[in-house]
Amino acid sequence: MQPQGQIDVREFKKVFILYNRYSGKQLFASMISRINEVYKLLKQELDAEITFLDVQYFEQMPELAKRAAEENCDWVIIAGGDGTIRAFVEDLLQLDFHPYISAFPAGTVNLIAKEMSLRSEPEQWVNRALKGFVYPFYTARANGNLFLTVASVGFDSLVVDGVGALQKRLLNKFAYVLQSTQLIRRELIFSDWRYAFRVRFDDETQWHDASSVIIGKSRYYAGRYNLFPDAALSSPFLHAALFPGNKRADILKYASLIALEGLNLDKDILCRKAKKVEVESVRLIEDFPVELDGDVVAATPLKLEIMEEPLLFIP
Q: For position 1, what pLDDT does the model report?
């Protein structure tokens, strides 16, 4: 992935560091100490006014975004997971405000940080950011909601829908393991997978059947698996995987292929690249939950489409 340019961050006048202290599992205040170290290092390197914004709850974000826009902030550093980044960038875009964006990995899921090879060691992170390389970061809209990395409809989204905010905060990724186990017991012990969907790409006339769907802007899925090798945040395309089988053995096979990063080993799994993906539920639940960047914030019928103007991202 090549940068599209370079900017002298030392010329910035205003910098905001937004930290969601409830993003991910923060033990022994280790993460807040890292964020404070980033703040101190930037204070030493920049002449800019640097403001630290401590997010106590998500409802604060629209007001904080409004403040960033009103003060014409040059650079926003978001310390949190993909869900925090998505929520705050959404609020900035609602105001038609487009500062430079950076991410410091501090959440349950950090796919953006993983793809950009970002580290949570403060000195390394600051030294890299100060180089000022700028990358295009293409986003998408899912039923009007901002989408950054990975979306899912089916087994995965039903798991995410069952994980509460408190579980997510206290148990981190283990909360999803527990919910997956419970979902398997509830949905697959005595019957096959009951839900079904149909999918089409770029307004084509043909629809494709699927029992579950995963759509990626990023290469990575579930924090570690390279599911879509050709996907990139800097690329204006979506990558979709359609899983056709609904038997219990199919679900287990798909989980194994994901873990092995080997979707190509099953020729029945349809993988497509597109700028627009539509998903409709055709069995049991019309408004089936849709997961975007680790949170359920939409439902079927789903229309997911690439936005033409990218974010300006400083890794």
A: 65
